[in-house]
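Justification of resources, computational component.

The compute hours requested in this renewal are based largely on the per-chain cost of generating structure records like the one below. Each record pairs the submitted sequence with a full structure-token output. That output is archived, and it is also reused by downstream analysis tasks.
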Amino acid sequence: MKSINPATGEVRRTFDELSDAELEQRLARAAETFPAWRRVPFAERSRLMAAAGALLVAEKEKLGRLLTLEMGKTLASAVAEVEKCASACRYYAEHAERHLADVDLSSGDLRAWVRHLPLGPVLAVMPWNFPFWQVFRFAAPALMAGNVGLLKHASNVPECALAIEDVFRRAGFPAGAFQTLLIGSKRVSQVIADGRVVAVTLTGSDAAGQQVAREAGEALKKVVLELGGSDPFVVMPSADLEQAVKTGVTARMINNGQSCIAAKRFVVHAAIYDRFVERYVERVKALRVGDPLLPETDVGPLSTEAGLRQVEQQVDDSVKAGARCLWGGRRIEGRGFFYAPTVLADIPPAAPAFREEVFGPVALLFRARDLDDAIRIANDTPYGLGSSVWTHDAAERARFVDEFEAGQTFVNAMVASDPRIPFGGVKRSGFGRELARLGILEFVNQKTVLVKDAAAQPARPEAATE
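The structure output for this chain reads:
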């Protein structure tokens, strides 16, 4: 495995994959650790998770630099990502016990409740675009629930994968509570099939999700999938146009355009379309592309040469199909994997950009005749992860909230993940939820308990209902 600096194309470090014997050792350690870890009281789990969060805060500059060097995000966004991981650790350290408390089902002479119990070793197959955040939003709730974690990270971020394992180790977690598996994608099937692994979560492409879901299904194992997105960003006439334009540029170019929940398709009402486009392109032209370690840089490189080639091909083929390129539309020559911030308009249905997720700094503009047409265009995608609408009309807001085919709808705000609210999608964007209470409930046994004893009561307080 190679750690390559996307800003220069240079190989930083190389790593050997685990041998079969080393992989077996880690799987055995996970299985051996689980029985003791599940019995660790919440107070102790909370203390350890808070310690992991504190380490992240203390080392955010060092860890942020690692993220930048290994996958190319700007240094400011990398440090912010590490801080966000710390917030997830704090959130679950504070709220996990309440989220997992017994739910009393007693009625009359019936004494029954639901108890939430851990499942065992859970495999997380994670992507490179948010190398720390994607992992911690799985690991914090999974470990606090009493499970143990096995991380198969993307092969181009091995240093990040090992650094995360090191954070949990130094925070005081048992050695088998969270382990990184340096293996290639072809060996994921072997781990899923292993009887000691009880569940799988994956964040990645819909193709990867199909494969993991198929293999987990064959093994009858629980799976959570967070897959691709082609999120709509709808702007209506009542919106604050300047704020919508400003936020829209940020929402598309965040993480160098490599985010599942980035705004990708800008659906703008015809009454304000021309004004929106003029101001949007003006702001995109002002973006500074360059070394992600420099504070003045707005957009850094794509993470890999393969990713750069794919975006280049999608844009070129879309223009050939009839789309108009209003700005950008080219790779930036020189070292590294840079692609110019790009704006496409008048995109025909035959163009790749009309249906495919473009994972790079490419904004797609669509003109909507009216409210119904805006909803139609927004939903005309195989994906359904996030959605954003900009309107101050209450009736319009109600329509979008009810009719957007997406796992999340943000009104007058950019879609973003937050430990306090559930995260996930519908359609080809996957199923299941991460974060908040719904996220921690994904990998527990929601066991129904009935006791034929009038004096019996749940041993733990009733869970909060939010």
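Residues 231-411 form a domain with the Aldehyde Dehydrogenase; Chain A, domain 2 fold (CATH 3.40.309.10). The CA atoms of residues 66 and 192 lie 29 Å apart.
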